[in-house]
Design goal:
It contains eleven helices and no strands. It has 290 residues and is mostly helical. The chain has a single domain, classed as MetI-like fold (Orthogonal Bundle), CATH 1.10.3720.10. It is globular, with a radius of gyration of 25 Å.
């Protein structure tokens, strides 16, 4: 008996498929081009065609690029990203727990936190930078009046772990808060009630029931916190003080470096971002199996 012929797909399917393929190429094509061009030989340029294959530009990146210490910028960005990750997870968890019950002033506070997502990033950076400069003025005046020796040594409160940290948290915390709202909105409180019926204290119920159930979401928030901090430029541009993060150094290099070493740096930073995402997904899968 002959099998019925498979119906041909409509033209709309192929048109939508072509649009999707074009979108994927538009989204990831430049990144793939950078990956390929970063492995050129010593005579390589910034455009195709390729001129040999080697790790020359990665070696040059390791040795340093002019006066910019890429290794130090890399370490600064990694340290800041880890601090942002920890604070984003902790504060998002506490906020999610607080909003499970009616919180006085919770609605205006929520709108204030989420408003930073819709404000232009450069405006947020300028505002935080201006606030810390006003703090510098007030603190400098106070020190000059009461402690002249300290006033002569004082420079600024602007820095990576003060104003820079605050600027990046204004970007990562809203995402963490929204994720925790979604998690607790579908969380079944019957598990906590069962724990209390069995004699568990509130802390024991949280540590042994609530936390294990929401842990995969907390790992995801941590990934968001680190990756958003790792590649943040606009909110960091006016608030980092004397030292730049790696994305800011990379932005500056795009106007001065004319060799594929800039592509090698882009490849390294992108691979690190994918490694963080892969580690996060692996931790979530391992936790769920447990």
């Amino acid at each position: 008996m002959a099998r019925p012929s498979r119906e041909s797909r409509p033209l709309s399917f192929w048109l939508l498929g072509a649009v999707f393929v074009a979108f994927v190429l538009f989204l990831y094509g430049p990144m793939l081009a950078i990956f390929v061009l970063s492995f050129q030989g010593p005579e390589g340029g910034l455009t195709f065609p390729m001129r040999g294959w080697s790790l020359h530009w990665f070696r040059q990146l390791w040795e340093g690029i002019g006066v910019i210490d890429i290794g130090a910028a890399f370490r600064r960005s990694a340290a800041l990203g880890l601090v942002v990750m920890v604070l984003t997870v902790g504060l998002s968890l506490l906020a999610g727990l607080a909003y499970r019950k009616k919180l006085p002033g919770g609605t205006p506070l929520f709108y204030v936190v989420v408003a930073s997502l819709i404000m232009p990033s450069i405006i947020v950076s300028l505002g935080i930078g201006l606030m810390f400069r006003l703090i510098d003025t007030g603190l400098g005046t106070m020190l000059a009046a009461h402690w002249p020796e300290a006033a002569s040594a004082f420079t600024t409160t602007l820095g990576m772990f003060s104003s820079g940290l605050g600027a990046q948290l204004s970007w990562t915390l809203p995402f963490g808060l929204l994720i925790m709202f979604a998690v607790f909105n579908r969380f079944n409180p019957a598990y906590e009630e069962a724990a209390r019926d069995l004699g568990a204290s509130p802390w024991q119920g949280f540590a042994h029931v609530v936390l294990p159930l929401i842990a995969p979401s907390l790992i995801g928030i941590g990934m968001f916190g680190f990756t958003l901090s790792w590649d943040e430029i606009a909110r960091s541009s006016q608030v980092m003080g004397d030292y730049n993060t790696l994305p800011l150094e990379l932005q500056g290099l795009t106007t001065t470096v004319t060799t594929p070493v800039i592509y090698a740096l882009g490849t390294v930073t992108t691979v690190l971002s994918f490694a963080v995402m892969g580690l996060t997904l692996g931790l979530v899968a391992w936790w769920r199996r447990g």
